[in-house]
Design brief:
transcription; DNA binding; transcription regulation; 139 residues; 2 domains; Arc Repressor Mutant, subunit A; 55% helix; Transcriptional regulator, HxlR family
Length: 139
């Protein structure tokens, strides 16, 4: 006799599903990682990630709407903005750190930035830190 598939006890719908949809794609996680590393300006994120302007704009807007990033003006006429990680965004740190750590351990091709992140995560692990005190992995 075949066993029945387990039924999820907490189906994900509504706001929870919207939040997961907004957070769980490759670009969004990479953008969030950049912000947590201290890259706050659009041009820096675009350059570091080699992402199209329209896709970066879309993902930044979603992260701001989710309350993960905050948009702050740093120049007027025309208005230019920086993106800062909010308290809610910092609460995502363990997930971002775990994914970054996994990639650093299991992906052979590390660039210099990933190696620095790997080293910082190893140091944090030795010290029992869940999140860097300054909110930044590397400076």
């Amino acid at each position: 006799m075949a066993s029945a598939s387990p039924t999820p006890t907490l189906p994900i719908s509504g706001p929870a599903l919207e939040a997961l949809d907004g957070l769980c794609d490759r670009w969004t996680l990479l953008i969030l990682r950049e912000a947590m590393l201290g890259v706050r300006r659009f041009g820096g994120m675009q350059r570091n990630l080699d992402i199209s302007r329209s896709l970066l704009s879309d993902r930044l807007r979603k992260l701001v709407n989710l309350g993960v990033l905050e948009r702050r003006p740093y120049r007027r006429d025309p208005d230019w903005y920086e993106y800062h990680v909010t308290e809610a965004g910092l609460e995502l740190w363990p997930a971002v750190a775990a994914l970054t750590h996994w990639v650093a351990l299991h992906v052979d091709r590390l660039d210099r930035g990933d190696a620095a992140i790997r080293d910082r995560l190893a140091e944090m692990s030795r010290n029992g830190e869940l999140m860097p005190a300054d909110g930044l992995l590397v400076t």
